[in-house]
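User: Here's a chain of 390 residues. Predict its fold as tokens.
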Amino acid sequence: MSANDNDHRGLLPAGLADLLPPDAAREARAIDVAIERFAAFGYERVKPPVVEFEESLLGGPGAALASQTFRLMDPVSQRMMGVRPDMTLQVARIAVTRLKHLERPLRLSYGGNVIRVRGSALKPERQFAQVGAELFGADTAEADAEAVLLTVDALRAIGVAELTVDLNLPTLVAAVAGGLKLAEEPLRRLRRALDRKDEAAVAKALAGPEDKKAADLFVGLLRAAGPADKAVAQLKKLKLPAAGAAEAARLAEVVALVHRADPALPLTLDPVEYRGLEYQTGVSFSVFALKSRQELARGGRYSAGYPEDGVTEPATGFTLYMDAVLAASDAAPERPRLYLPAGIAWNDAAPWQAKGYAVVRAVTPAADARQEAKRLRCTHALIDGDAVPL
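Assistant: Prediction complete.
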């Protein structure tokens, strides 16, 4: 059998990939850095299982990801299970069940792989690493701001520079529409117009004579997009219904808190965006790097738990998408590899490791240490007691 006859074994389903050296090590180090930053702010790590019962995984806000969830039958219990498409939902389950006895606010962190039924045009990967943190039991602007600031802190610690944060308020349109008592069909047309950022279509969606003020209001919301300070000032000028005004005021408070903590951090605002934020219930955000078009992180406020069981609590948090994070970060220098010829004692490797080398011990004798070291992709070889560069 030739070497090529077995190449098909390396083929993987679309959207799945092996992570090879040095990328696998880079990802592991980045995850460790992020988890350590979370721990420095009091977030304790949890580790949920890869699969769990369908009703737990897809209950409450998890219903929004039902179409993205692989399902299988548990041969032991004969009950349906789901492979996690998102770890946030699992951490929320842990908070409201296993850790419901702990005092609030409760801070938890996590890291692991998720898998989804299909990718998207912008993100074709179906399996990827998620790392994040969640804060349960506090419905305050300070908690919202902490989620934003901790996301930025972790990304900077990993090595991503020049970040920008895009803030959203995905429930604002519904709150304003509810206050104006818009009917279902005009609201559906309005949503489509807002998705396209089309002022003319907004006016057309609300074309009735009694809808003129509503159309002007939603056009005003469309225009309140851009740098956060200007956007907040624009929102304050609008005569929003009470529920919408309260949400806008909360957003303004979060912007002020983040600016106070990190005045140089660029903040933008889009108050009508809600796609991809279906289970968010308040201030939400995405983080980007100026050198990358990919979304590095997403987070925001949601209701943790199972409303169908009457068990919910306020929560906010975020997830880092590690593939995008690594693509936007500067790779750290790889550890130099030192070849140790045959006959070197096991314990003699330790001093070189303490100097930062990865030691590659010979397991068979070699006539030429330099050539053997190069063959094994080493950067140095131990010759006459010295680490000689190759």
